[in-house]
Structures are given as C-alpha cells and as structure tokens.
User: Which sequence fits this backbone?
C-alpha cells in the first residue's frame, strides 16, 4: 500500500474584508488539488466568529503525497494567490492515530459528529476486530498468563483500529457522520 493516510490541519485568517475572496480562492485550490496524485480530500471550516481563523482539513493517501504537494509548483502558486487575501503564514498541524479517526479536535463542536454516531461506528470496528483476534490470535497465546495475553490482544486491537479499521470506516461513513 505504501503507507497510511495522513491528515493535516491548516489554520489561517483572512484579511479584513477579504473573507469571500479567501473562501473562493481556497475552493479553487481544492478543485485544482483534486487532480494532484495522492490528494484525497479537503474541507474548509469557516471561523466561528468574524475575524477568526479558518481551518482546512487536508487528507493525503500517504506522507509522500503530502510532501510532493508541499513542494509542488501548483501549491506554491496557490500560496502566492492566497497571500494577497490572508494574514501571515499558515499554521500547520498533523493529526495521527486517534486524532484522525473523527477529525481534528480543533474543529468547532458544531462540526464534530454526534457522540452516539462516533460510539456506534467505533463499536462497528471494535466488534469484528476483537472477534477475529479472539478466534485466531488468542488460541496461539493460550500458554501465556491472563494479563499478558490480555495485554497482547488489546495492543493488537488498538493498533488494528488506529491504522487499519477506523480510517476506512470513517471514510465510508463520512456523510452519515456529518448529518
């Protein structure tokens, strides 16, 4: 596969009176970026209050794709255009593991999925993961003491959920989560 998906949050303010122009340029950049290899998706989240920071959540198929986008002339051109309507330089934050399951904690609460939906989707990933590990891995650990056996199985659940199951489930259920 070549690596796991990466998520990056970009924070930046529009210059006073330039919010509409900023949003239009970011939208045009998204349209251009859709054609860039490894660029999976992006979402613009407007500030909660006038004059606040915009947030962009970008998703790339893998770290190498983000690095190629970061170094590309296409991105450089968009950064130059955005500099005319934005204050200062953008601030970047990478999301990893559990942070990326449901989106960044920086996103305003009204944009986060409902807790019951996150719980249900988590259970939909945990149940089959645990069942499979108990069926196929636990028997191989039968000679280990209970706590060590439990530690191995729960470590495998955590890794499998963070890196394999939840990134796929949240991608498949994205529309449902946001409703």
Assistant:
């Amino acid at each position: 596969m070549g690596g796991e998906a990466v998520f990056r949050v970009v924070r930046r303010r529009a210059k006073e009176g330039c919010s509409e122009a900023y949003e239009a340029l970011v939208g045009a950049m998204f349209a251009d970026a859709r054609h860039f290899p490894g660029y999976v998706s992006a979402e613009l989240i407007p500030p909660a209050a006038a004059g606040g920071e915009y947030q962009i959540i970008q998703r790339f198929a893998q770290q190498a794709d983000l690095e190629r986008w970061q170094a590309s002339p296409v991105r450089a051109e968009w950064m130059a255009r955005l500099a005319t309507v934005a204050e200062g330089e953008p601030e970047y934050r990478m999301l990893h593991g559990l942070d990326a399951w449901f989106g960044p904690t920086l996103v305003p609460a009204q944009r986060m999925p409902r807790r019951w939906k996150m719980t249900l989707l988590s259970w939909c990933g945990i149940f089959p993961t645990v069942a499979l590990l108990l069926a196929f891995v636990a028997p191989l650990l039968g000679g280990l003491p209970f706590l060590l056996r439990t530690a191995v199985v729960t470590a495998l659940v955590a890794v499998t959920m963070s890196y394999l199951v939840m990134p796929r489930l949240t991608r498949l259920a994205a529309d449902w989560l946001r409703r």
Summary: The helical segments are 19-33, 63-71, 73-83, 115-136, 146-172, 174-178. The longest helix spans residues 146-172.
